[in-house]
Amino acid sequence: MSEFTQVATIPKTAARCKAEGIGLSEAQLRVLCKRGELKHTKMGHSSLIYWPNLIEFLENGSQEAKPPAVGKIRRIEE
């Protein structure tokens, strides 16, 4: 696929996924980036995805998943 680059925005990465038969939509890529499961770089308002990082994620899954920063309730000792 010479028309695609190794680093691309989410819409272009979704287009490459579609062209190569990988079932990831633009919305799914955005969620993976937002959760921190898929390595990406922010450039302004855009997220750039390195293609080999996406392939590694698909093969191995997310090993750096972070717990949510909010939403936990802890008991306060009296």
Topology overview:
Layout (H helix, E strand, L loop, with lengths): L6 E3 H10 L6 H10 L5 E3 L2 E5 H10 L18
Antiparallel strand pairs: 1-3, 2-3
Shape from CA axes?
elongated
Helix share, percent:
25-40%
Instruction: Give the low-pLDDT segments.
Output: none
Secondary structure category? alpha+beta
Q: Quote the beta fraction.
A: 5-15%
Largest sheet: 3 strands, antiparallel
- State Rg: 16 Å
Mean pLDDT: 86
Q: How many E-type strands?
A: 3
Strand order of the largest sheet: 1-3-2
Helix and strand succession? EHHEEH
Cα end-to-end separation: 63 Å
The number of helical elements comes to 3
Structure notes:
The structure is a single chain. The chain has a domain of 53 residues. 38% of the residues lie in helices and 14% in strands. It has a three-stranded antiparallel beta sheet with strand order 1-3-2. The protein is elongated, with a radius of gyration of 16 Å. The N and C termini lie far apart (63 Å).
Question: What distinguishing features does this structure have?
Answer:
78 residues; 3 helices; three-stranded antiparallel β-sheet; alpha+beta
Describe what is shown at a glance:
The chain is an alpha+beta fold and 78 residues long. It has a domain of 53 residues. It has three helices and three strands; from the N terminus they run βααββα.
